[in-house]
Amino acid sequence: MRSTLPVMVAFISGIVMVISFFFNPERTFLGRLQDDILQWVTIVGGFTLVLGVFSIVRVNARAVARKSEGWFFKLMTVVSVLAMALPSILPTSVNSAFGKLFYAIFPASWGSLFGTGPGSIYDTLFIYVDSPMMETMFATLAFYIASAAYRAFRARSAEALLLLLTACLVMLWRIPMGEAFLRLFSDSLPDYINMYVMNGFNLSVQRGIIIGAALGIASMSLRILLGIERTYMGKG
Amino acid sequence: MKFWDRVANIDRRWIYLMVAAAVFFPMIVVMKFPVELTPETRQLFNAIDSLPDSSVVMLTFDYYPSAMAETRPMSEAALRHMFSKNMKVVTLSNIPLGGPTIAESVTRAIAKEYGKVYGVDYVNLGYRANYVAVMHGLASSIESIFKSDFTGTSLKDLPLMDHVKNYRDIKFIFVVADNATIDYWISIVNAQYGVPVGGGVTAVVAPKMYAFVEARQLTGLLGGMKGAAEYEKMVKIAGSATRGMDSQSLVHLLIIFFVIVGNISFFITRRKDKGSA
C-alpha cells in the first residue's frame, strides 16, 4: 500500500490535469477540478518549504550536539535560518489569534519589526547580510573565469580553436568598447555576429537541446503517470 | 626559467589583481562608450511602448540577489518605462529567497519617483510556492493563488485588483529572470494562454532564449548587463547597467587578452618541450 497509494495519487492527479486541460474552468466541473488541484499544489509546495527548514535545522542541530567536524559553521547555519525565518512568521499586528497572544507578552510597538515588510528584521538582514553575501559569491566567479581563461581555454584542436574565436567575438560584441572596435573592420560586423552566431549557430543548437529536453520531460511524465518511474518515492 | 615559462606559470593572484583593477579603473576614470542597440531589445521596448497608456502589465522578479547586478537594472528600467506611460503594474516573484523583497524595494522606490500609489497603480503579489502551478492557476483566477498581496492585505482591498482577475486582463508580461522560470512563462503562459511575454535574463541564460525570440514566443529579449544598458538607453536614463558597461568592457577585454597570452605561452612552451624531448 505504501507504494501503491502514491502511484494511484500521481496517476489520478496527472490524468485529471491532462483531461481537464480541454475543459472550460468556468463552466465545467472538470475544468474547476484543475484549479482545485493547482491550489493544492501551491499549498503542498508551501509545506515543502517548512519541511526544508525543519530538515536543515534538525540535521545541523544534531551535528552541533555531537560536536562533529565543522560544528561551529553548522551552528551558524541554524542561527541564520532561525534569524531569517522566525521574524518573517511572527505576527505584525493583533488581528489574528496568534497576534493577540504574542502582543499580550511583547510590546505592540515591536510589530513593525516583524513580517517581511520594509524596515523589518527580515528586510534588514536580507539587504545588509544575505544579499551582499550572495552577490559576493557570484562576483567571485569573474576572478575564476579570468584565471580559467588564462590556464584552461587552450586551442588544442581545430574545434577548440573555433570555439575560442567565437567566444572572443561574442565577448567583444557584448561590450560597447568591443562593438566600436569591431566596427573599425566593418560597420556590419556586430550585426553579422548577432545574425550568424547568436541567431544562427547558437539558435539551431539551442533549439535541438530544447526539443530534446522537452521530449525527455514528456517521456518522464508518462513514466510517472503510468507508475513505471518511482524514484520520487525514494525507490530506484 | 625562461620568459614564456614564467608567463605560463604566472601566480593566479596576479590575474585576480588585474581583474580587480579592471573593475575599479572605470569607477575612477569614466570612459562612456556608446551602447548600441540589438534588434531583440528594440522589439521588447516597442512591444511595451505600443501598448495603450494605462494598460495592466505584469512584471516578474524571478531572480536571486546574486544576479542583481544584471537583472535589477532591467526591472528598474522596465518600471520606469511602464510608469512613464501610466501603466498599472502587477509584480510577483517565483523565487522564495529574496524575490518578493527585491520586488518590494525596487517597485516602491521607482513608484515614489513617479508619484504612483500602491494598490491603485501597482500591486506586489509576493511569492507562492511551485511556479508551474502558480502560472496555470493565474489563468483562471489570480485570487485563487494569491489571496493577499506581499504585505498580507487582501486583494479585495486593493482597487487595482478589482478589474485584474486573470491573464485576460493583463496585456503583457515582462519576465526578469536568472533561471528556468522564463521557460515556463513562455511554454505555459504564452503558448497555452496566449499572453505576450517579453524577457530580461542574465547573460548565461540569454543564448537559450534566442530560439524563443525567433519563434515569436518571446517578444524581445534583454541579455545580461548589456541588454539592461540598452533598455536604459531606450528609456533615456543612465542607470547602473550603463555605468557598469565600462567595467564589463575592461574585464571582457582582459579575459580575451588572457586567452591570447595563455595560448601563445601554451604553444611556445609545448614546441620547446617537443624540441627537447
| Structural shape of chain A | extended
Q: Percentage of helical residues of chain B?
A: 40-55%
SS-based class of chain B? alpha/beta
End-to-end gap of chain B: 17 Å
- The SSE order of chain A reads HHHHHHHH
SSE string of chain B = HHHEHEHEHHEHEHEHH
Radius of gyration of chain A, in Å, reads 27 Å
Rounded mean pLDDT score of chain A? 88
Q: Main sheet of chain B, how many strands, which sense, barrel? A: 6 strands, parallel
Q: State which percent range the strand residues of chain B make up.
A: 5-15%
- Order of the strands making up the biggest sheet of chain B: 3-2-1-4-5-6
Tell me, what's the shape of chain B? elongated
Task: Characterize the structure shown.
The complex is a heterodimer of chains A (236) and B (277). Chain A has 236 residues and is mainly α. Helix content of chain A is 75%, strand content 0%. In chain A, 13% of the residues are buried. Chain B is an alpha/beta fold and 277 residues long. In chain B, strands 3-2-1-4-5-6 form a six-stranded parallel beta sheet, sandwiched between helices. In chain B, helix 4 (68-84) links the parallel strand 1 and strand 2 (88-93). In chain B, helix 2 (12-28) packs antiparallel against helix 11, helix 4 crosses helix 5 (99-113) and helix 4 packs parallel to helix 10 (224-234). Chain B is elongated, with a radius of gyration of 22 Å. The mean pLDDT of chain B is 91. Chains A and B meet through helix 2, helix 5, helix 6, helix 7 and helix 8 of A and helix 2, helix 5, helix 6, helix 9 and helix 10 of B.
